[in-house]
Structure formats: C-alpha cells, structure tokens
Amino acid sequence: MARPMNSAYNDELPRNAANYQPLTPLIFLQRAADVMPHHPAIIHGDQRFSYAEFYQRSCQLASALTKAGMARGDTVSVLLPNIPAMLEAHHGVPMCQAVLHAINTRLDASTIAFQLDHAQSKILIVDQALLPLAQAALALSDVAPELIINDSPADSEHLDYEQFIATGDPDFQWLMPEDEWDAISIGYTSGTTGNPKGVVSHHRGAYLLAQGNALVANMPRHSTYLWTLPMFHCNGWCFPWTLSVLFGTHICLREVRAEPIWQALAEHKVTHLCGAPPVMSLLVSTPAEQRRKLPHAVEFFTAAAPPPKKVLADMEAAGFNVTQLYGLTETYGPAVVNEWHSEWDTLDADARTAYKARQGVRYLPLEQLKVLDPDTLKPVPADGRTIGEVMFRGNVVMKGYFRNPSATEEAFAGGWFHSGDLGVMHADGYIELKDRSKDIIISGGENISSIEIEDALYKHPAVAVAAVVAMPHEKWGETPCAFIERMPEQTVNEEALIAHCRQHLAGYKMPRHFVFADIPRTATGKIQKHLLRKQLNN
Q: Where is the AMP-binding enzyme C-terminal domain (predicted)?
C-alpha cells in the first residue's frame, strides 16, 4: 500500500505567479521577437516580415479584436489561404483570449454556414478571393459576424484587414490564457457522413505539440518551412507556432501548385514541408523542365492515408527524405511518428520503403498509444497481424467536441480516445494502419484491409488513384471492389489489373470487380468511400 506523500511538499508550497504560468504557444513568438527581432519570419512573394514586425502585427490584431468586443471564449472565424494574415490570426486571436476557428477554404457554402452557426462566430476575416464563398455562407447562416476583408479593394463597402489592425495598439499587452486548459482553437472534422464535429483544442496541447514538432522533426535553428499544408487543417499541425521556437522562416503559398513549390524549394533553400500523399504525387509527377535542383535533401512529413510504397520510393529518388506521421484533428494533428533507425539505411529499397510506410510510435508529447481490442480495451498481440483499434491518451488529445457531449463521451469511453482507425502492432512497438473501422472488408469471415489492396494496385504504372471498398456478395457476404483513376495517357483494363494483383495479393484478397471512373473526394482531398459504397448498393 502506498504511503501518503509528505503534505509539506504540497500544502506549504502553493503555486504563485513567480513559479507557475499557464502554458501557451503564444510565448514562442514573443521570445523570437525579443531575441531575433530582425530575422525574417515570413516571406510571401515580395512581402517580408521580420520577427519584430510579425509580433507587432499580431499584437495589433489582438488589440483591434479587443476593441471590437472580443473576449475570453468568443469565436473569431477566418477564411484565408496560407498567407501572412493567417499566421497573424493564429497568434492575434488567442492573444485576446478569443478562440480561433480556421475554416477549410474548399468547403461548400452550406457547410461553412453550419460551422459559423455552431461555433457562434462573432467576427469573420476573409480573403478577398474567397469573399463570394463567404457571402454565400452568410446568406445561409443564422449568425451575422462582423466581416473583415483581407486585400479588400479601395472602393469596397467592407472593412479592410489592414485598416482593422491599424486600429490596434502595437504595444498592446496581450493576454495570457487564464488557464492553459482554455480553448485556443476549434476545428471541424470533415463530416463525410453527417454534420462535422467541432474539435476544441487548448493552449497546453498546442504548446506541447508545437515544441514536439521541432524536436521530432529534428528542425535546426533558422529552418525554412514551406506552407504546402493548409493552415486551416489542424492549425497546420501546430507549425504556425513551431517556427518561432527555432527562429525559423515561414514561406507562404496561396496555392499548392508544382511550379511555385519547386521554385520556392530552390530559391529559399527550404528545409521542411508537410503534406498529404497527393502533394507527393504532385512533386514526383512534375515534368523535368519545371523541377529545380535542390540544394540539399528536403525533409517531407506526410500524414492522412498511408502513402503508396511506389510514391515513397519516387520521393526518395527525387531528393526528399519522407517521414510518415499519423494523427487526427482530435490530436492536434500528428501524434505518431515513424522514428527512423539508422540501421534501416543499409536495407534495400523495398525493405526501406516497407519500414517508411509504417506510421510508427507515439509523438514526444503523447503519453500513451495503443492498439486495443475495441470491446475489451485489452492490447492486441504485437504480431503485425492482429487488427485492433488505435487509441490515444495524453495531453495532446482534444478537450472534446464543442456542444456535443454525447459524441465526446463516446470518443473517450474507457479513458481512451477512440480513433476509429484499425491497425496492427509490430513486435518492435511500431503501429501500422490497416483501415478505418468502417472501411474494413469482411469476406467469408476474413478481415481484408482495403489499404493493402490499394497499395498493390499503386504498384501498377497506369494507376493514378485507387480506392477499394466492400461490395455485397451472395456467397462471401462482401468482396473487394476497386475504383481506379488511370494515369494521363495510360491505358489499363480489368484483366491486366487482375493479373497484376495476382502477383501481390492472396487469392481471397483479390478485387472481384473494377470500376474505372473519377473518384469523389472531400474538400480536404480525402476519398469519399461512403459514396463509392453507395454506388455499389444502388
């Protein structure tokens, strides 16, 4: 039986302002401005902002928002691409104790309207290029947030962003959170099967993950980070706050296109960038005349669906060192990393690629990561075969779902965050995703991973995109059906793909049917498998 702790260690040593402050990532920018005021913080085309200017403008935004009535717990929404104003919003909004709601710029008006209403938005900052979308959403919403336009024309009826922040005090004493558990942001899940859920993140988690990024990614001082990952997605995996830790430089991009990416990689000597597998496919499929010689190996961090092994091999050949991450909006972005072992460098290309395709081990600031039986909450055997549900526990797990207590309770059942992702645990403690729980195919009592089939299909040179779902079968209950998008100017038919799959898959895992068609995606580029299943059941 444990002995009680000597009470003098606690009762006689209370917290006070000298020895206890709430954790918040906002202090990173303040420190960078104090220590490296003239170092370039943001580059966007011809625009340049030093750390002193970045900090001052963020403080002015916080001051202007305070004058506009924003206070603790008020929601400020932004509909912005990856531009300096978006970086300022990640600091200025929480600097006045408000909550940042970064909206996916690819959503439709009705979904944005739902988010504005659900988040109870008070102010909406919009880029001029996205104003028609914002106005369409506001016409459908119940709330009527004050509208502020970035890059507004001189004759506009709306308040311009630069005019708005000019009303703020550059010497504004920004407000620390009253509690590190206070919300710093709300971000919405993709909502492929219903209304999206509002994921609430707190200052403590953002602080820990921002530092964790720097350490896990082994980012040196003055790293240069290219914004190919949307900042609206999980707050850009907390990298808007990470770069200040390192006195790094943000390279902003309005659009993710091959030519400007390659240009930025070479001209700004980019050291790091992040993105989903489609960004990697974009890079490796760029014509040779548009590519630029890279001054060094570039670190590329990828998440979302497990990348095809062929794409990983092509990225390595193109001069990128790819690190696989995994996480969710509910874990502030990446909470799992494929920590690389130096002895793996000596393996052949196929073996290295197989190791790179694994999601990995828990992120530095995450306390526990397990693959558990969803019914018993007991760990599955670490045999690389037994499938269970990936679950998280720690300080970089969300506060919960905004105004949705039943969904929050369900997600945290048994004291774990249930990801809904299925995977295996390898003997060395590394996890590997196999599917979403709703995407697993059960054929004749056997569990079949759609990801494994897709990975085999991607090995065919004519396959650009593959998505595998279950289709009804009289005898087996379900069998795999493969939807295929062909590479440009490539032809392939069902017979050829069947022959190809026989070389890579067990017989019971073979797709029984192929559909050659455009594959539907969400606004964030995720394949909408529920729509594919619906096609098969109609």
A: 452-526
Q: What is the pLDDT of residues 363-381, one digit of tens each?
A: 999 999 999 999 999 999 9
Architecture of domain 48-202 in CATH?
A: 3-Layer(aba) Sandwich (3.40)
Q: What pLDDT was estimated at residue 477?
A: 74
Domain boundaries, given as residue ranges, for the chain: 48-202, 256-436, 441-537
- Whole-angstrom distance, CA of residue 283 vs CA of residue 312: 11
- Concatenating the DSSP letter of every residue in 266-319 gives HHTT--EEEE-HHHHHHHHTS-GGG----SS-EEEEE-SSPPPHHHHHHHHHTT
Q: Of 412, 418, 415, 402, nearest to 184 (Cα)?
A: 402
Same fold, 48-202 and 441-537: no
Query: Residue 195 and residue 190: Cα distance in Å, rounded?
Result: 8
Cα→Cα distances 176→14, 25, 26, 91, 181, Å:
20, 10, 8, 11, 12
| pLDDT, position 493 | 94
- Third-level CATH fold of 441-537: GMP Synthetase; Chain A, domain 3 (3.30.300)
Q: How far apart are CA 472 and CA 487, in angstroms?
A: 28
Q: Using CA atoms, how far apart are residues 298 and 266, in angstroms rounded to an integer? A: 10
Residues of the chain with confidence (pLDDT) below 50: 192-193
Q: How far apart are CA 14 and CA 394, in angstroms?
A: 25
**Third-level CATH fold of 256-436:** Rossmann fold (3.40.50)
Residue closest to 315 by CA, chosen among 347, 280, 344:
280
Q: Mention every residue, 6+ apart, whose C-beta is less than 8 A from residue 82.
A: 227, 230, 231, 236, 252, 253, 254
The model's pTM is 0.86
Q: Which residues of 27-65 are buried (b: 16+ CB within 10 A; e: fewer)?
A: bbbbebbeebeebbbbbbeeeebbbbbbbbbbbbbbbbb
Beta bridge partners of 101: 77, 186
Buried b / exposed e along 503-523 (16+ C-beta atoms within 10 A): eebeeebbbeebbeeebbbee
**What 3-state class would DSSP assign to 532?**
helix
Q: Helix, strand or coil for residue 362?
A: strand
What is the model's pLDDT at position 192? Answer: 47
